Amino acid sequence: MSNSVFQLNNQVAVVLGGTGSLGGAMAEALGAAGARVAILGRSAERGMHRAEEIRRNGGEAVYHTADALSRESLVHARDSVEKSLGPVDILINAAGGNQPEATLQPGDDFCNLPIDAWQKVFDLNLIGGTVLPCQVFGETMLLRNSGSVINVASMSGIIPLSRVVAYSAAKAAVINLTKFLAREWASRGIRVNCISPGFFPAEQNRGLLYNADGSLSPRGQQIIDHTPSGRFGHAHELAGATIFLASSMASSFVSGHNLVVDGGFSSATI
Ligand SMILES: NC(=O)c1ccc[n+]([C@@H]2O[C@H](COP(=O)([O-])OP(=O)(O)OC[C@H]3O[C@@H](n4cnc5c(N)ncnc54)[C@H](O)[C@@H]3O)[C@@H](O)[C@H]2O)c1
How much is the pTM? Predict the structure, then answer.
C-alpha cells in the first residue's frame, strides 16, 4: 500500500489512552498503516503489551507513562516521544470515560447529582482528555505548521442519552472544542477532527451492557434494539475512520468534522 493515500509512513502518532480498548485498537491501526506509534497512558503493563503487539505485526511502537490530567506529565511525555521517535504529526486523544457517581440511576433526581462527580467527568473527558493534550502537542505542531488531531467524543455528545448526563455534556463540549480548534488552527496547517463512537463493549461499559453470565443486560438489549446494524461495534471498526482522519493525503481538506461510527444508532428514529 505504499502509494495509497491511507499509508502513514514516516509519521509519528501519539495515542493518549492507547492503553484502553478503543485507543489501543486505534494505535494498532496507525501502526499497521506505517506510523511510528507512541502509546501514552497510566498502565505500563497494558501500554507495553499493546506496543509489543504492534511490533509483532511489523510496526514500530513505544510506551510512555502519562497522566492526562497533568500538564507537566504530558510535557514530559511529549519530550520523551520526540526523543524516541521524533516530532509528533498525529495526536489521538482517547483517554476518557464515565463515572458511576455522575450517572442517574432509575429514580434518581438530576437536581441531586453531585457536582464533584460532574467535575471529575469534565476533568477527564474535556480538560485532561482533550484540552491539555491539544495545548501540549498543539504547541509543537504549531511550530512545524503541520499536524492532525483526532479527539474521541461520543455519539452521546450528539444525542443526550438517558442517565449518562455529565458524560454526554462533556462529550458535546469535546465536539464543540474540536470545531473551535479546527477554525483556530486551519491557517497553521493543523487539522482537528473528532470521532464519535456509538456502543463498543470495553472494560468500562461491559457491566452496563452485559449481565455477569454474558447475556445482554436490559440496557444492552435496549441499545441493540435501537441500533440499525443490530449489534455493538468492535474496536477494530474504528481503524478506517482513524487512518482516514490521520492521513494528510486522505483527508487534507477535512477539518472540524465529527465522524460518527455507531452502526446507525444516531440516525434511527422509532
Ligand atoms: N467504549 C465505548 O462504547 C465508547 C463509546 C463512545 C466513546 N468512547 C470514548 O472512547 C475513549 C476510549 O474509551 P474505551 O471505551 O476504550 O475505554 P477504556 O477504559 O478501555 O480506555 C480509556 C483509557 O484511558 C485511560 N485513562 C483514563 N484516565 C487517564 C488519565 N488521567 N491519564 C491517562 N490515561 C487515562 C485509561 O487508563 C484507559 O486505558 C473514551 O474517551 C470514551 O469516552 C467509548
Answer: 0.97
